[in-house]
Amino acid sequence: MTDMLQLTLETDKRTYRRGDPIELILKVTNRSTRDTALQFSSGQRYDFQIADSTGRTLWTWSADRSFMQVLGSERLTAGEAREHREQFTGELPPGKYAATGSITLMRSPLTASTTVTVQ
């Protein structure tokens, strides 16, 4: 099923000043001609992370959130796209960072990454 889904991660800018909020936009698209059911093991549907150049995770969107512990599903119709947006509002020192977004599917989470530069 995951080969029918396309996942992309974008930010509102490529370069940020120290302290600027970073908007993360995760988009999942059903590329097939059939409806697809997405299966989840909890109320969480997506997540975001920011890591430094050594791979050390500095921020995880879900870290301070709770999600219902109940199985769930969502249907994506043929060709449908769904976006999830969140903002990182912390302060990062100048450098390059890896931003990762994921759709937290039950059996095979999907991930997409992009690079962010802080000046």
Summed up:
The protein is mostly beta strands and 119 residues long. It has strands spanning 5-11, 15-16, 22-30, 36-40, 46-51, 57-60, 72-76, 81-88, 95-103, 110-118. The strands form three sheets. It has a five-stranded mixed β-sheet, with no helix packed on it. Strands 1-3-8 form a three-stranded antiparallel β-sheet, with no helix packed on it. A two-stranded antiparallel sheet has the order 4-7.
Key attributes of the depicted protein:
3-stranded antiparallel sheet; mainly beta; 119 residues; 10 strands; 54% strand
Topology:
Blueprint: E1 5-11, E2 15-16, E3 22-30, E4 36-40, E5 46-51, E6 57-60, E7 72-76, E8 81-88, E9 95-103, E10 110-118
Parallel strand pairs: 2-10
Antiparallel strand pairs: 1-3, 3-8, 4-7, 5-6, 5-9, 9-10
Explain this structure to me?
The protein is mainly β. Strand 5 and strand 6 form a beta hairpin. The model has no long low-confidence stretch (mean pLDDT 95).
